[in-house]
Amino acid sequence: MAIANESHQEEHNMQEHHGAGRYVVIWVVLLVLTLVTVFTGRMHLPDFGLLLALVIASVKGTLVALYFMHLSEHRGANRLVFGVSIVFVVLLIGFTLMDFGTRFRLANPPGSQYSDLQAVDIGANKAEGRQGGHLDEKQKKETHE
Amino acid sequence: MSSAHVTPGSVPGPKLAAHFASLEVQKHAARLGMWLFLATEILLFAGLFACYAAYRFLFPEAWAACSRELDLTMGTINTVVLITSSFTAAMAVHYAKEGKNKMVGHMFVLTLLMAVAFLVIKYFEYKHKFHIGTLPGRYYFYEGIQLPGAPLYFTVYFASTALHGLHVIIGMTVLMFSTVRAYRVGDFSANNYTMVELGSMYWHLVDLVWIFLFPMLYLV
Amino acid sequence: MTPSSSIAAPGAVPGHEATDDHGHHPSYLTDGTTVKSWLLTVDHKRIGIMYMAWVLLFFLVGGIFALLIRIELLTPGPTIMDAMTYNRVFTLHGIVMIFLFMIPAIPSIFGNFMLPLMLGAKDVAFPRLNLLSLYVYLAGAGFALWGMLNGGLDTGWTFYTPYSAHTTTSVAPVLFGAFIIGFSSILTGMNFIVTTHTMRAPGITWFKMPLMVWALYATSCIQVLATPVIGLLLLLVTAENLFSLGMFDVARGGDPVLFQHLFWFYSHPAVYIMVLPAFGVMSEIVATFSRKNIFGYRAVAYSSVGIAFVGFFAWGHHMFVSGQSTFNAGVFGVLSMLVGVFTAIKVFNWVGTVYKGAVEFSTPFAYFCGFLFFTVFGGMTGIAVATVSLDVPWHDTYFVVAHFHFIMVGATIMAFLAALHYWFPKMFGKTYHEGWGLVSAALIILGFNATFIPQFLVGNAGMPRRYYEYPERFQALNVASTAGASLLAFGFIIIAIYLTYALIYGERADNPWNSKGYEWLTASPPPTHNFIGPQPTYPEEPHFYVDPNTGKGEVSDV
What we know:
The complex is a heterotrimer of chains A (145), B (220) and C (558).
Chain A: H1 5-14, H2 21-42, H3 49-68, H4 77-101, H5 136-144
Chain B: H1 23-58, H2 60-69, H3 72-98, H4 101-132, H5 150-184, H6 194-218
Chain C: H1 35-39, H2 44-72, H3 83-119, H4 127-149, H5 163-166, H6 171-198, H7 211-243, H8 256-290, H9 297-310, H10 326-354, H11 363-385, H12 388-394, H13 398-422, H14 424-428, E1 430-431, H15 434-460, H16 475-505, E2 507-508
Antiparallel strand pairs in C: 1-2
Helix pairs in contact in C: 2-3, 2-4, 2-16, 3-6, 3-7, 3-8, 3-13, 4-6, 6-7, 7-8, 7-9, 8-9, 8-10, 8-11, 8-13, 9-10, 10-11, 11-13, 11-15, 13-15, 15-16
């Protein structure tokens, strides 16, 4: 074969063909996981609620990538590309959060749980509320009363 | 992407562009190109996820309060709709490999209908927010939540759902080309399904992003 | 199965004999001479040439801005412009040079032209996307230019919030322009990665690829992974500027430092988008002009990928004094130094290649010497500014300005000019005047040092960057810097003159360097489909020269 071997390998990998049943199963599993995450989400678990939700989402995402997007059959570069992009997402979020978590408290935005500063009152004119909201309506009501 | 090299009416297989050594290479290139493109999409949303993570970290109370302000029923229905549309898109590829062009078209029409449904539901959610004033930044005027960081939550909410919505629209456009081709030309087969496959991959990405956005926005 | 074997060899059309008669087969330059045949071409070579025309134009624009800055700084007070104009001028200098010149310079011109030739392919994998990337680049440049004519902007090229969200200058069109240019960069990157994976000719395995290809591959990975993040960020800031959504607004709980995180997640690796292709060019040139196989091929190849990877772990060193946590600053400081390790691997291997080589001291090699100096000197000062305790006093002084001009601009400009001279015969089939080449190389290297070494000194003495006025005691060094800049400009003018002359009246040349690089295996200038007749055979190594010590074709490799 007088071409780059990768393409040949790829063609070989892609020749598998599955029955439709496989897609139905994945679809059902995805729906079930959606219901599970809604259920656990409504329990408002105090500490690990978001973590659990993200774990379930990751499982769902993995299923979509592996079976709907056929990553389970792809080899080589395709997998690498997807894997690397996920790694870099984690890298971006990880280093950024590491910064927020280890900061000098006064350097965090005022009003946040990691800052000792009160939220800024930008109501120099009363049209804008404490947290930057428009208090037009509220103000109108107040003047009515 | 690959569609650029495929000329309509070139039965039985796709046309080989002059610079490729073989069809194998051409298909491989198209698929790898699509994966790279999807990687850029993932990184695009990663920027928003980073904003989300940072502000969720700083304002957990506002985040919890605001996410409960969203309509969970509508969000759940939208998730189910999008997952199902992803399923039909996967089935379209399945039928394309078997050469059942009519079924490819049907599957994509179903996908497109669900995409429209998704956007309609999203529209009602947006409309409600404009009504009660849970809006980004300086447009926020909702009295129910006056926690620091609340307007920021809706900045993130609107930025990410709007960007996702834009991707839904782009995805619909891409799928429409395949749908028309499946009905009009009908030349998808085991040898020639790259166009369907890549369009469907893009649609799965739209679904993938929503799978993460849904718990992040509605369930914290 | 597809009948791939019969069409595998590029250009192996039956009945066409290999011929050295270039008149017989039209070169890519003469194959169609209408304007349309250029504007709508999908030929990677023509696209490369078109990129060259535009990129050089923007280099001229950015260079004029640079000269304006230097003239303004001749005297401590106002010289030729007011303070607001000065803010706009240095902002535009940064934006034009980075987004419109440095990022596309080597990959889009020489990468586009050489990559398929080096891989023995007829074109890049997606020729139409390649053309699209050119027009997307021009569209983005148009937006940016419109913003500049519409009053310009004064944020500095970094667009830091909150200022960029509040300034009334035309930030939005320029941000949007930069966003569009990002697409062009992504398209080029995707194209190169796919081309490298799928278009290699038989015989070219991963470790027989020329080192330029490795460098372009690593660059493309950065382009694909980092550019989307800044794309999103630029959109957010545009929205912030137009509608005040409050994403990075402290008053609404937002954090401007988060902006900086996202910004440098792209913009630090972007430095390697500029400099990695320069490393690739130099790896080609050092082997060619030392008449010796590259020393440590694998080490140089891997270190390109290594730099691309660790380049992503270093972004926080731009934020040491921005309110980032000290813990993060320390971590980023240490991780930044890893880049130095990989760069040093390359430097040692280049020096090892020159060692005992039969050096032919021509213009590209002169630029290599300048490049080596700038890389080492700029790199060492980079290690210094990556040290948190040292960077705190140096931050935002001219020391940092001089540092990044040395490593990022110095190294890249040297490589750009070296590539221009080295591949000039390849691209146009003509040679330039060697004497003028050496004279201008000397002028430019000298001018560059004269411009930026005073800036190291004045920065170390405490002069902050971006300031319009300065105390009188800094004037001597500033005058020296401006003198250097004019020397530099003079050098570029000479190059422009003799290369234009060579383009028209230059002597016919095919491979004046006797280079063994894969791209020289076809005619110069190459025919439209790159190869005529039977496919060239590829020697065992991409830089295969006779070892001058033994007189045999030995591989002086690891």
